[in-house]
């Protein structure tokens, strides 16, 4: 099993399952994001439990940079969609998803987009302090005429945007398996070759949504709660996904 690590634990070795290795001008996308103002100060990042470039969170930042490097090595020269899901609730999947997206945004030649796909318990907008006044993912899927730009929010992290989940829904699988959902992700990725997408999915345990979402992703990162999820539970979770897409398992201490 491939292993990665995040937060306060040591980073384990990750061996890629494949060597595999749209296009618009990346300069246009990056230039637009560089115009954003109001970047979060390091102390604000720490309050929001986000990595930053200062020494106080170097260990955590380096762990996420390491995961970024491994994903880029697996993908080659192409941008990609990564699904991040936890084995069970409170294992820290959302924490890992937003910090991995942040690590990609550290690279000034790249932009990242975090999409909250945990429709039962969405929390990325709360973590970033974003008020989704014009709706989120589900609102757009139900009413595409509003335009995708209306649900992409500034996060305070340069080059990182957020699409919140929108209205809570119990039967989320029907949205994720729809043609419209696939078309939206393809459009978001293909429009700019410098854009990397991260889907924050619901926990694997107790929901089929994580497996449904994996069909839309190039890579799957599984988050296991350090001391919370047993080896048997982790192996059972891993078995839900196509081995060719499995990037690795992150052992995480932070819920």
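^ structure tokens above, recovered residues below v
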């Amino acid at each position: 099993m491939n292993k990665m690590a995040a937060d306060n634990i040591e980073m384990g070795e990750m061996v890629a399952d494949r060597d595999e290795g749209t296009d618009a001008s990346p300069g246009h996308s990056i230039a637009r994001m560089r115009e954003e103002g109001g970047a979060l100060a390091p102390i604000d990042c720490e309050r929001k439990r986000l990595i930053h470039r200062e020494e106080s969170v170097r260990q955590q930042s380096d762990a996420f940079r390491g995961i970024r490097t491994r994903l880029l090595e697996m993908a080659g020269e192409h941008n990609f969609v990564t699904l991040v899901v936890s084995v069970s609730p409170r294992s820290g999947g959302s924490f890992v998803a937003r910090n991995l997206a942040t690590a990609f945004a550290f690279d000034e030649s790249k932009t990242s987009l975090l999409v909250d796909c945990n429709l039962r318990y969405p929390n990325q907008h709360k973590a970033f302090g974003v008020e989704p006044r014009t709706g989120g993912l589900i609102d757009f899927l139900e009413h595409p005429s509003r335009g995708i730009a209306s649900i992409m929010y500034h996060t305070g992290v340069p080059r990182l945007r957020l699409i919140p989940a929108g209205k809570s829904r119990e039967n989320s699988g029907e949205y994720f398996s729809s043609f419209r959902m696939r078309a939206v992700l393809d459009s978001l990725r293909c429009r700019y070759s410098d854009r990397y997408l991260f889907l924050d999915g619901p926990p694997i345990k107790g929901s089929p949504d994580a497996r449904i979402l994996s069909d839309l992703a190039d890579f799957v990162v599984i988050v296991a709660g350090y001391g919370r999820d047993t080896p048997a539970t982790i192996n059972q979770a891993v078995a839900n996904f196509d081995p060719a897409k499995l990037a690795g398992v992150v052992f995480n201490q932070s819920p």
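The two ends are 22 Å apart (CA to CA).
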